[in-house]
């Protein structure tokens, strides 16, 4: 177990409401990532962080924001949830160096109704 | 841009059958290549990896060889078990901050 906790594990929310997903690590890894998993697309990168307060956009960042105020926490916020954001969200952690393994959390299943 | 293409499933096999899941990639430079596995209800975990051409990654009876000439990283196992039933993802790391680019995933179902 790589010491990654995602919360909540399941959430149902209404269109237009803000939602925040939390990722907490106990491994002191420098890099943290948010991916979404959708059928036919595999996992796609939403945002990533390479240090405290250092974040950048991934492939599918529209409608999402992130924050990292501490090494161990990486928050993903949907400012105004839409049905297209219904998905399974995975947090991952990693380190520098070619071929370094990424460790994934258990996922958060988000349904926007 | 960089991309990964893998055969879509589901792949259904009988126990002890031979498994191949094809994966090809498009990338500039020299990416690292990975196979991750996702068991039902769980997150992804690394199955094997290769960081340079002609490297062979192996784990739990699974193997894949980094073929630069064919830009491929096919996953193979000589004799699958029911416990291998899962979704398998091919991925590459494009170097900067080790961000991963995934294929669509291949669901494998192994029957007794």
Question: Can you describe this structure?
Answer:
The complex is a heterodimer of chains A (113) and B (112). In chain A, the strands form 2 sheets. In chain A, strands 2, 4, 5, 6, 9, 10 and 11 form a 7-stranded mixed β-sheet that branches. A 4-stranded antiparallel β-sheet of chain A has the order 1-3-8-7, with no helix packed on it. Chain A is mainly β and 113 residues long. Chain A is built from no helices and 11 strands. Helix content of chain B is 0%, strand content 51%. The relative contact order of chain B is 0.34. Chain B has strands at residues 3-6, 11-14, 19-21, 23-26, 32-38, 44-50, 56-59, 62-65, 75-77, 86-93, 100-102, 106-111. The radius of gyration of chain B is 13 Å and the shape is globular. Chain B is mainly β and 112 residues long.
Give the helix/strand class of chain A.
Answer: mainly beta
Number of helices of chain B: 0
Beta fraction of the residues of chain B? over 45%
Query: Terminal Cα separation of chain B, in Å?
Result: 41 Å
The major β-sheet of chain A equals: 7 strands, mixed
Helix content class of chain B: under 10%
Question: Care to count the β-strands of chain A?
Answer: 11
- Contiguous uncertain segments of 5+ residues of chain A: none
Secondary structure elements and pairings:
The complex is a heterodimer of chains A (113) and B (112).
Chain A: E1 4-7, E2 10-13, E3 19-25, E4 31-38, E5 42-51, E6 54-57, E7 64-70, E8 73-78, E9 87-94, E10 103-104, E11 108-112
Chain B: E1 3-6, E2 11-14, E3 19-21, E4 23-26, E5 32-38, E6 44-50, E7 56-59, E8 62-65, E9 75-77, E10 86-93, E11 100-102, E12 106-111
Parallel strand pairs in B: 2-12
Antiparallel strand pairs in B: 1-4, 3-9, 5-6, 5-10, 7-8, 8-9, 10-11, 10-12
């Amino acid at each position: 177990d790589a010491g990654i906790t995602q919360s909540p594990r399941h959430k149902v929310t209404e269109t237009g409401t803000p939602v925040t997903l939390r990722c907490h690590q106990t491994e002191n890894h420098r890099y943290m990532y948010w991916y979404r998993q959708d059928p036919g697309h595999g996992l796609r990168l939403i945002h990533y962080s390479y240090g405290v307060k250092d974040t950048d956009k991934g492939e599918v960042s529209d409608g999402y924001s992130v924050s990292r105020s501490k090494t161990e926490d990486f928050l993903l916020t949907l400012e105004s949830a839409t049905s297209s954001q219904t998905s399974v969200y995975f947090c991952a952690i990693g380190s520098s160096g070619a071929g370094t393994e990424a460790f994934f959390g258990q996922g958060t299943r988000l349904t926007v109704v | 841009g960089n991309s990964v293409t893998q055969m879509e499933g589901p792949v259904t096999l009988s126990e002890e059958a031979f498994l191949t899941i094809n994966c090809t990639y498009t990338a500039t430079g020299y990416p690292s290549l990975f196979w991750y596995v996702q068991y039902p209800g769980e997150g992804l975990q690394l199955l094997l990896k290769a960081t340079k051409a002609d490297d062979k990654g192996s784990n739990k009876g699974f193997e894949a060889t980094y073929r630069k000439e064919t830009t491929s990283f096919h996953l193979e196992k000589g004799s699958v078990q029911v416990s291998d039933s899962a979704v398998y993802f091919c991925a590459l790391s494009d170097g900067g901050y080790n961000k991963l680019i995934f294929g669509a995933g291949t669901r494998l179902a192994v029957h007794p």
